[in-house]
Amino acid sequence: MKDTEKIEKLAELKWPKISAAAWIRTEGKCAYCGADMLANATAYFTGFTEHILPTWKYRNRYADPFNATLACKHCNEAKGKWDPNGEGEQRIVTDAHRAITQTQHDRLIERVKEHIKEYKDASEKNFQTVKGIIRP
Ligand SMILES: [Zn+2]
Predict the structure, then answer these.
(1) Measured in angstroms, how far is the CA atom of residue 104 from the centroid of ligand 1?
(2) In angstroms, what is the span from residue 30 Cα to ligand 1's centroid?
(3) Which residues are close to ligand 1, an ion, with C-beta < 5 A?
(4) Closest CA to 107 of 90, 82, 88
(5) Residue 60's closest CA among 51, 69, 50, 49?
(6) Confidence at residue 109, expressed as pLDDT on a 0 to 100 scale
(7) Closest by Cα among 76, 66, 17, 68 to 45
(8) What integer best gives the mean pLDDT of the chain?
(9) CA–centroid distance, residue 111 to ligand 1 (Å)
(10) Where are the beta strands (DSSP E) in the chain?
């Protein structure tokens, strides 16, 4: 089935096109950690369509298809409202009037992955401590 057909079928289920495109592009996996959001119903209901450039700062990017991706609950929380675009010469998306390209999309995803790694290391440590107390 073509991606356009998949998007149409999900639209029949009241999915916004931007979400459908994001889930299809990632094949139902978290763009940041690869967790399979279609492994089972529990995973499915913890998958979020996420705006890579946060909408609090980039309101005009709300419906930009390449500003959306799929994130698991953990990655979505770890990223929060953080802006991966960078400042000055580090900026990836500079032209406010042009749609985000696939290349810019991929580079932004890589930055988010780096950003959330520290958060995940800390939460893994916390998890191991708690688990060690509850199940010594
Ligand atoms: Zn994830």
Answers:
(1) 20
(2) 5
(3) 30, 32-33, 35, 72, 75
(4) 90
(5) 51
(6) 97
(7) 76
(8) 95
(9) 14
(10) 47-51, 68-72
Taking only the tens place, the pLDDT of each residue in 27-84 is 999 999 999 999 999 999 999 999 999 999 999 999 999 999 999 999 999 999 999 9
Place of tokens 């406010």: 96
59 Cα–ligand 1 center, Å: 24
Written as one letter, the residue type at 10 is: L
pTM equals 0.90
Q: Which residues contact 7 (CB under 8 A, 6 or more apart)?
A: 17, 20, 21, 24
* Stated length of the chain: 136
Q: Do 104 and 67 form a contact (C-beta atoms < 8 A)?
A: no
Residue 6 has pLDDT above 90, yes or no: yes
